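Input.
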Amino acid sequence: MKQIHEILGGGLAGRSAVLVVPVDRKDEQAAYSAEEMVRLSHTAGIRVRETFSFRLHHIHPATYIGEGKVTELRNLSGKENISLFLFDTDLSPVQQRNLEQQLGCPVVDRTGLILEIFAQHARSSEGKIQVELAQLTYALPRLTGQGLALSRIGGRLAVRGPGEMKLEVQRRHITQRIHRLNEKIKEIEKHRQLLRQARKRKEYPVVALLGYTNVGKSTLLNRLSKSQLLVADKLFSTLDPATRLVHLGQGSFCLVTDTVGLLNRLPHHLIAAFRATLEEVAFADLLLCLYDVSSLDIERQRKTTFEVISLLNLKTKPYLEVFNKIDAVKPEERDALASSYPSGLFLSAKTGEGIEILRQMLRENLASIQESVTSETNFTYSGKQEKV
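Output.
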């Protein structure tokens, strides 16, 4: 089955692109979103030559941006060997097709770019299955534009009807492939259930690392467990979950699971495709929400994290908020952040500062959670302890 970049008309890495940033009047963080798109582009190996930002008064059904802006973009396509247009928004299949026809080169929206990165970074068979499922779910409605120029497969003897369009054959094959991938996801979920049961027999509590992409989750897990997980200064460098045993001191241990990074406006169908991975979060005893204090917008990170927690129906799950990369900010900035988030723990996974305090907090919180669970599952009645 074709990768998403093939469906969209060729590999994206190495291309020169114009980043198109339609700014809604209510969007107060457009600059941050555009910067995030530049980082995503860099991670995918795309060179952003120019950013085309403008105020969008209303969305045009056919092209999203209107004919006037399409003309302006067409004039940019001849500069610096531009061969790609990236849109900092999600386009409908019709809008994407119309833009490609009028601009004469591939158009990739925010979701398409994220999928390109996912395809590049998936390493395990599990990760590749989840990425392919997300790719095909995205690609299926976009086959319409490609099918216009496809010839029919002629009818033959023993074949009823005049034949099918090649487009229809592709659509059926993709639908069947999606079904098979969903079955494989169910098998992965069963396998993970067996792993969780094995962990439960060993009575290790589980902590799930949750947070924005590139906030340092893998670095923190390496620091806590002395392991050697891949660490890269790129978005979505970790797609495959990893679980490590962590010593918390005083004879206490827990399992810490790394998860796929989050991103603002991460489409729900991507989260659905990674449900087997994110399910680890649902079965954790404690969530460790990690943020990057060197980021321009911590609140965006926190909002995105809690939106996913809400989407997974885990709003009642205990959690700790940890602010990473304090080595990258000035002391006065650190003090201001500590004042703004008094219940948060500030540390540096890179230098190790604050790690022992984190171990202590994990030990105390997990002990408190265990005591709470014990008190809820047992009660005293007529002088006898009963189990419910």
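The radius of gyration is 24 Å.
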